[in-house]
Specification:
single chain; 398 residues; alpha/beta; three-stranded antiparallel sheet; 14 helices
């Protein structure tokens, strides 16, 4: 029999400040919620909490959709839930790609046996409505349009309202990725006419990773109920899952829910309701503006045009001659500060600085600017040293 090493003991993670693309810093109230007693997933008390969770998610998404719940898995599973339930073999889907995660949508379409028609834009740019309109006119057989609202790989935000309106004109459903936008920038699901939406627990909700809130319009729910073929994933089949997350006290067993993780998400959503959606959006914008002032005072540049820039995910171009990995390593080692690297074609070209949820605060902004200034100055980078923190403070004390 293989023996475990006797040197292995209790794991105590280091204390970090998380300012990458996610996960974000977790509010202590959420960590405390996870430590509460575990009860059964069919316990009447837990079912009562599930009903509250639906109400809280409806508020977060700004929807009245009955089919609203958290998937018991990360945001990628929320994405898959949308695609495998709405697409069948032989269908056509138009996928907008302006970063990494539009590419993952394409993978989902193809694994459903459907055809993906790609509308591609440069990374760092929003979805081009004109290109989408051409694709919709060229492919009248298309069943749905899928797009990323807030592209995590670049920090660019697309015009969800305009995309949804265009899709409706061509009798298409819409799937929207809000993994990075939920709780950080406006999402008005019903007002915009979005049919299927998914997010993640670990970004602007400041919860631990591992859960994916989703919501489906009644139009989308009818498509799910009237499928000709079985959903290819048993675990993510909404026709089965809703027996557990449905209305009323009587629930059909589907899977053992991640009980303590759901306590955490419930608390995260309570915190969002207490702050108020508009206040949360304003807070993310304020701290972005302070970070922006400091970054630009140093002489660094943002990758995304200001009109389409996410406040909670900031892509900053790496100065000429600076070693990306070395900077991030120094920040982690010397300041216990994590920022993100670029993905795909952006690898080695940008840093992704997150200001998400509980991490979007003045202390973190000033820490990040001061640390980045110090590390780059020590590396003899071509920046304006010693001015970033002062520039940010002018925003805070205006």
């Amino acid at each position: 029999m293989t023996k475990a090493s006797t040197s292995i003991g209790t794991f105590h993670p280091p204390q970090r400040t998380l300012m990458g693309p996610g996960p974000s810093d977790v509010n202590p109230r959420i960590l405390e919620a996870m430590s509460r007693p575990t009860i059964g997933h069919l316990d009447p008390a837990f079912i009562g909490m599930m009903d509250e969770m639906k109400t809280l998610l409806q508020y977060a998404f700004q929807t009245n959709n009955a089919l609203t719940m958290p998937v018991s898995a990360p945001g990628s599973a929320g994405m898959e839930t949308c695609f495998v339930n709405l697409l069948e073999p032989g269908d056509t889907a138009i996928v907008c790609q302006n970063g990494v995660f539009g590419g993952r949508m394409k993978e989902n379409v193809e694994r459903c046996g459907a055809t993906a028609i790609m509308v591609e834009d440069d990374w760092g740019k929003p979805v081009d409505i004109n290109k989408l309109e051409v694709a919709l006119k060229t492919h009248p057989e298309a069943k749905l349009v899928a797009f990323v609202h807030a592209e995590t790989s670049t920090g660019a935000q697309s015009d969800a309202r305009a995309i949804a309106q265009l899709a409706q004109q061509h009798d298409c459903l819409t799937i929207m990725d809000t993994v990075t936008s939920l709780g950080g920038t406006p999402i008005l699901m019903d007002e915009w006419g979005i049919d299927a939406i998914y997010s993640g627990s670990q970004k602007c909700l400041s919860c631990t990773p591992g859960l994916s809130p989703v919501s489906f319009s009644e139009k989308a729910a009818k498509v799910v109920r009237n499928r000709k073929t079985k959903v290819q994933s048993w675990f993510l089949d909404l026709n089965l899952v809703m027996g557990y997350w449905g209305e009323g006290a009587k629930r059909a067993y589907h899977h053992t829910a991640p009980i303590n993780a759901l306590y955490a998400l419930h608390e995260a959503l309570v915190l969002l309701r207490e702050e108020g959606l508009e206040n949360a959006w304003d807070r993310h914008r304020l701290h972005h503006n302070a970070l922006k002032a400091g970054i630009e005072a140093m002489g660094l540049q943002f990758v995304v045009d200001e009109a389409h820039r996410l406040p909670q995910l900031n892509s900053v171009a790496i100065p000429q001659g600076v070693d990306d990995a070395a900077v991030r390593s120094r920040l982690l080692k010397d300041y216990s500060l994590e920022i993100g690297a670029g993905l795909g074609v952006m690898a080695g070209k940008i840093w992704r600085i997150g200001l998400m949820g509980y991490a979007a605060n003045q202390k973190n902004v000033l820490l990040c600017l001061g640390a980045l200034d110090a590390v780059l100055t020590d590396m003899d980078a071509n920046i304006n040293s010693g001015v970033a923190v002062s520039a940010a403070n002018k925003i805070y004390h205006n």
